[in-house]
Amino acid sequence: MSLRLYVPGDSAAVAVGADDVAQAIxxxxxxxxxxxxxxxxxxxxLLWLEPMVEVATAQGRIAYGPIEVSDVESLLDAxxxxxxxxxxxxxxxxxxxxxxxTRLTFARCGIVDPRSxxxxxxxxxxxxxxxALAEPGAIVETVTQSGLRGRGGAGFPTGIKWKTVADxxxxxxxxxxxxxxGDSGTFADRMIMEGDPFxxxxxxxxxxxxxxxxxxxxxxxxxxxxxxxxxxxxxAAARDGGMLGARIAGSDFAFDLEVRVGAGAYVCGEETSLLxxxxxxxxxxxxxxxLPAHKGLFGQPTVINNVLSLASVPVILDKGATFYRDFxxxxxxxxxxxxxxxxxxxxxxYEIAFGITLGELVDRxxxxxxxxxxxRAVQVGGPLGxxxxxxxxxxxxxxxxxxxxxxxIGHGGIVVFDDTVDMAKQARFAMEFCAIESCGKCTPCRxxxxxxxxxxxxxxxxxxxxxxxEVLTDLCNTMKFGSLCALGGFTPYPVMSALxxxxxxxxxxxQLQAAE
Amino acid sequence: MxxxxxxxxxxxxxxxxxxxxxxxxxxxILHDLQETFGYIPDEAKQLIADALNVxxxxxxxxxxxxxxxxxxxxxxxVLKLCQAExxxxxxxxxxxxxxxxxxxxxxxxxxxxxxxxxxxxxxLGLCATAPSAMIDGRVVGRLDDKKLDALLNEADR
Lengths: 516, 157
Fold this sequence. Notes:
The complex is a heterodimer. In chain A, the strands form 4 sheets. Chain A has a 5-stranded mixed beta sheet with strand order 2-1-3-4-5, with helices on one face. Chain A has a 5-stranded mixed beta sheet with strand order 13-12-16-14-15. Chain A has helices spanning 11-14, 18-31, 72-80, 96-99, 117-122, 127-134, 139-146, 158-166, 188-195, 197-211, 225-240, 271-278, 307-319, 321-325, 358-365, 399-404, 423-437, 443-461, 465-482, 486-490, 492-501, 510-515; strands at residues 3-6, 36-39, 53-57, 60-64, 88-90, 174-179, 215-220, 256-261, 302-306, 328-329, 332-333, 335-342, 348-353, 375-380, 387-389, 413-418. The longest helix of chain A is centred in the C-terminal third of the chain and has 19 residues, at 443-461. Chain A is an alpha/beta fold. Chain A has 4 domains: 3-99, Glutaredoxin (3-Layer(aba) Sandwich), CATH 3.40.30.10; 117-325, Rossmann fold (3-Layer(aba) Sandwich), CATH 3.40.50.11540; 328-418, Ubiquitin-like (UB roll); 423-515, de novo design (two linked rop proteins), CATH 1.20.1440.230. Chain B is of the alpha+beta class. Chain B has 2 domains: 9-65, no CATH class; 77-154, Glutaredoxin. Helix content of chain B is 45%, strand content 11%. Chain B has helices spanning 9-19, 26-37, 42-52, 56-65, 85-88, 92-103, 145-154, and strands at 77-82, 116-121, 133-135, 138-140. A 4-stranded mixed beta sheet of chain B has the order 2-1-3-4, covered by helices on one side. In chain B, helix 1 (9-19) packs parallel to helix 3 (42-52) and helix 6 (92-103) packs parallel to helix 7 (145-154). Chains A and B meet through helix 1, strand 12, strand 16 and helix 17 of A and helix 2, helix 4 and helix 5 of B.
């Protein structure tokens, strides 16, 4: 019998040597005349332990990590012997970081072979679709009742969006998956596409049946070559298996999917800009109304949802709306795949019910900074999210609670900074990033961001600090209320939060004054 | 080792023909042309315009809107260093300065010998193993001085 090993093919694992480890295992095994089967699974999301290799044993899978090429010989000794190894982590599901999570959307990620339709089915895959096909008319109501809200950042109720499209009459409707995950500190979409692509395909298929759409597009950013490759393979496998195409799973419903690749424009994560990009134009934001639900891709009614929203649908259909909505707090129902990133000891994917506090996530689960220095600030929700000081660490992870503190949870990314961070520099970067990525359509964003960089520069030089901070605040106000989309509209969040919570970093700098 | 082909209108027409029937064919065509030639040659714009029945200006507008599309060939190697917040928190500024000093160029420039192009990238989704880089499409995480120097040496060949 051959020895089965799991070496993640997730790009975060590959970036720290997983491909080399897999190759070294093959070479070493051949030399030992040992028959090995290597599965390139997704990542479990314990990214500080990557490459985390798992060995299939009679007692279940046993994890070892982080494994380097130089550890491969001793790893094979352990795998063929008593299992003892300095890097042995034990059963992965018993590791506290994983054990304490509630994995609904990420239930299979890191466990299955992402390119195997059979493996997907063997792990409860396509159970949601079976329910959907049994009662197609009830899908929209189930999704609405589950309380699922858009996981891309806006938090709009998914069921209501679907109902709007379902209620339209058109010869062609579309399902578009927004996989343009551009926020720094986020990688959940990427992990799903690389680790469990069929769940996204299933979610989009269910959406298609629910609203009467027969064609779907997955718009993936070009910075994600691994995700693009896995999605393409999975779509082909689903088509071969009769799960995409003219008669899905033998039913009368037709639905097919295509991957489209972005071209390095952050603003294309904004839904209307993404639609323009898909149509082959500059990715410029559209004014709303009309809503994409009425007039979306190629002018047709379109459901456009984030990867995580669509990937959460199969479990909702399978286990029921009540099961899902029983997790969470307030109006934030279900679970959120939170991404712990930046200067953090235990970085990775942490899916849990809404309501956990920011401090618990950063200090207890994340283990504080990787540098070992004190945590000074965390940015939640990507480049458009606010910087939170330790004083706000009691904020629960919830759409409304973050909004009440002038922040947002966005796509669930948390980037940790230690006490060496210069918050004026971070505020400057927020403006600079907006200037680089602005689509140029509206003036507050296009011009405001450039003026913002200049104004922060003046503050950092110690030039008329009080007056320039007033200008900066006024500028942020204009951008917030005058911009067409969230890029210009939310850039004030990181800027103003830095200014509000860390005013000392904007004070005139003694060493610069002395130099003048 | 240049894997790209020299400009050839016939090849460009074939590439365009491969995609022109698709809905929203513009981006797939541009990606494929760049894959073929290493950049979007100016001559290609009119061919695309003719095939898609849009103006040449419209094609030019699309090419210049997206950071990915090049209007001139890149160096033989392309090293992208992530400049986004998660990588900032792990010191990407220092690494970028090191790469710039070693190559004598700034981000966004190509070395005089055409060996390497250094580019910023805003997030590779490797934010828990930051700082991150991508060299010729290959991802690298937990970048430090030693790994960066190895990448720069690799690009020497």
